[in-house]
């Protein structure tokens, strides 16, 4: 509001100034003009009337001199041609009225009866003149004239003209003034508005448009510069403020962290089971060591200097003293476990004595600080654990040795037993056969049948012994690995099986080029067992099928042997590779129960794994690999003993 | 009617003569004529060569038999000038040569007037007469009485023959002008 008022005031002043100037100029001009014009008009009027009077005088001198009133009257009558002349008269030399003239009877009384002194009088309406009449430098009478002056009309007219001029001039001045205002006040208004905006918004990036090159333009330029200066200062101030605030924040943060740290340390120290101590730069204990003294029972006098070493166990004292001296010389952190006298318990206890030098910026040790941590219980516990561990280790080693011994003995026993058992078995079988062949006619049918049973039992036992020997051999044989083509081996084995039972029709399918790396004899044992099982368990099927191939599981490739034979119940799968465990009746599918155990042992010796999937009456699939797996713990098959 | 007019004129003339010169005996008409004769000088222009200097006097002449007029003229012109020129009155004897005069008053003697005018014919002299139909005798200005007022007629022919120029202003008050251009 104030700004607007101020501006309207400027506008007002401008207008008033221009109008006043114009009016003053007009008034002076007008006054001069009117005075001059009226004076001029009067002069002309007087001159005209004087001339007229002189003409009358001239033409009436003779009439006067020769007293010819008629002629004088006629002369005056010629004034009818001049309607502005209201009245005229001629007086003789004695001042008596000689002849007169009047435009209308109303003017008769204007004519004086007697002549007056020469004079000219002009008033608003009339001009009145008395003039002597000369003839040859002799006054022979006088002439009087009264005429309309027209001064009033002239004055009105001149005033009217002047007023018209004044009105036009003032109107022009007003226009000029408004133009001036537009040139002067609008930039000022703009600046004012801008200033208001700057004050309200505190936005120092605003700038006024410079439209003119005059003082206002300069003013606007100066205003802009001032604004930019203010903006610059303000932004600097704000930046410095924010820096200050940041510094204050940082400082308060630091103070807070410091107090927190101090609090933490105080809490730590008061809650520590450990005690703290301080020593000077030379490693000598300073005067007050309350915690130390209450632990060791020393006094400020007794712990002073290197007196504190007296509280160390005599066996450790020498070493600790040497190490401490060394640490003090080198100003490096010190840590040592030793036994320290514990006064309240009346015993030496293990402590962890650690010390750190406080080093000033110059690199000089100012003092030492340290803690003494009672680790007696911990030390004792550790010692006990170590002792127990050592004992356990010892016992495990003993047991292992015993077990290995027993195993070896068992193996050699079973081998020798198997080997030794074969001779009596062969004689049982051989003599039973001889009895049937040589004395068959003397024996009845029942005796023959008993003998057949004896032979069967002996033969089964022989096979069992063979298998067991095989198993044991598999375990002990040395591995000789080389590249193998399993497809060829499989084809060979299946061919043998076909020849052994030519009456069976079995559909076999072998993937070509199944390559592996292993011991050829042992791998042959594996395939032999798996194929003979497949052959055996598909015996009751007319559409028997055996497949040998390779599949991928989880990035690894596995060989598989698949049949569509009798299969087994998966809940017994964990017993599949255990020796002498059989899932089928011996009469239905004869076997010793050692084959799959042998297979598993061979594969394990190669570092591979084997498992089976099956469903009753649908067939079985045996998956195996001969290469070691990184994921041995994924082995699904249970460990068989032995 | 006429009686009233005469009475009125007499009253006015009496008043004016009394005001002009109450000591004079001669008739009022003669006084007026003398004054007129003097005033004529102002309206007449003589050939310049007849005056030796600008101050040379204008001479008004009468004959002895008009001595009363001569006397009146002398009274009238005393101390007065026409322009720079003084005015003199000369009384001529019966046969005196009319030389060095500028105005000649001849009065009302009809017999003499003709011979006198003849004698000065061609000379630059204004001849003033006081005769009925005086202009026919060859005078320049002839008085006449009109409504008891002294008036005069002018003959431009006579004036021109005597090499005189008469001011037009004088003509305006003349009753008759002989020889005026139509």
Automatic annotation (TrEMBL), chain A:
It is an enzyme of class 2 (transferase). Residues 334-387 form the PAC domain. It is found in: Membrane. Residues 378-409 form a coiled coil. Residues 261-331 form the PAS domain. PROSITE patterns: HAMP, HIS_KIN, PAC, PAS. Keywords: Coiled coil, Kinase, Membrane, Phosphoprotein, Transferase, Transmembrane, Transmembrane helix. InterPro entries: BphY/WalK/GraS-like, CHASE8, HAMP_dom, HATPase_C_sf, HATPase_dom, His_kinase_dom, HisK_dim/P_dom, HisK_dim/P_sf. It comes from the Bacteria. It catalyses: ATP + protein L-histidine = ADP + protein N-phospho-L-histidine. The chain crosses the membrane at residues 14-36, 158-180. Residues 416-630 form the Histidine kinase domain. Its EC number is 2.7.13.3. The keyword Membrane applies. Residues 182-235 form the HAMP domain. This is histidine kinase. It comes from Marinobacterium zhoushanense. The lineage of its organism: Bacteria, Pseudomonadati, Pseudomonadota, Gammaproteobacteria, Oceanospirillales.
TrEMBL record, chain B:
Residues 1-20 form the signal peptide. InterPro entries: YfiR/HmsC-like. Pfam families: DUF4154 (PF13689). Keywords: Signal. This is YfiR family protein.
